[in-house]
């Protein structure tokens, strides 16, 4: 089921979204100051490409908390809002609920990416 979900996800826009995240990460890596932001963009790209069968483990302590506060104010709030809105639209239909749940997972990661790890369930 996880494979079928990821195939449908990729065909319906997952590749495009992951490429956009990858491009953002590459642009952030052009400057030394942007490298931490680029790492978070690459983390989002890996989750956005194939979200089914992955989970997010949060941790990181005080440095991650400070970085997440800055991230939320500058970028994360708007990203999370967009993912929540689209996830809500997907959850209107029964068929869209699994995809909406993945979008909610991405909303949480886009809100607090520092200190989080994306891991495979199996």
Provide the helix percentage: over 70%
The amount of beta strand, in percent, is: 5-15%
Count up the helices.
4
Question: Low-confidence runs (pLDDT<50, min 5 residues)?
Answer: none
Work out the radius of gyration.
Answer: 14 Å
Strand order of the largest sheet: 1-2
Secondary-structure content class? mainly alpha
Looking at how many chains there are and whether they match, the oligomeric state comes to single chain
Give the strand tally. 2
SSE arrangement, N to C: HHEHHE
Total of domains: 1
Large-scale geometry: globular
Structural features, described:
- By secondary structure, the chain is mainly alpha-helical.
- It contains four helices and two strands.
- Strands 1-2 form a two-stranded antiparallel sheet.
- It has one domain (2-120).
- Helix 1 (2-29) packs antiparallel against helix 2 and helix 3 packs antiparallel against helix 4.
- The protein has helices spanning 2-29, 35-49, 61-90, 97-111, and strands at 54-57, 117-120.
């Amino acid at each position: 089921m996880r494979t079928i979900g990821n195939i449908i996800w990729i065909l319906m826009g997952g590749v495009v979204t992951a490429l956009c995240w990858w491009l953002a990460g590459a642009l952030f890596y052009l400057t030394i100051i942007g490298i931490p932001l680029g790492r978070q963009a690459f983390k989002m790209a890996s989750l956005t490409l194939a979200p089914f069968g992955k989970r997010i483990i949060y941790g990181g302590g005080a440095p991650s908390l400070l970085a997440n506060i800055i991230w939320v104010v500058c970028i994360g709030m708007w990203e999370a809002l967009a993912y929540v809105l689209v996830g809500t639209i997907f959850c209107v239909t029964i068929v869209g609920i699994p995809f909406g749940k993945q979008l909610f997972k991405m909303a949480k990661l886009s809100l607090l990416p520092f200190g989080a790890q994306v891991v495979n369930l199996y």
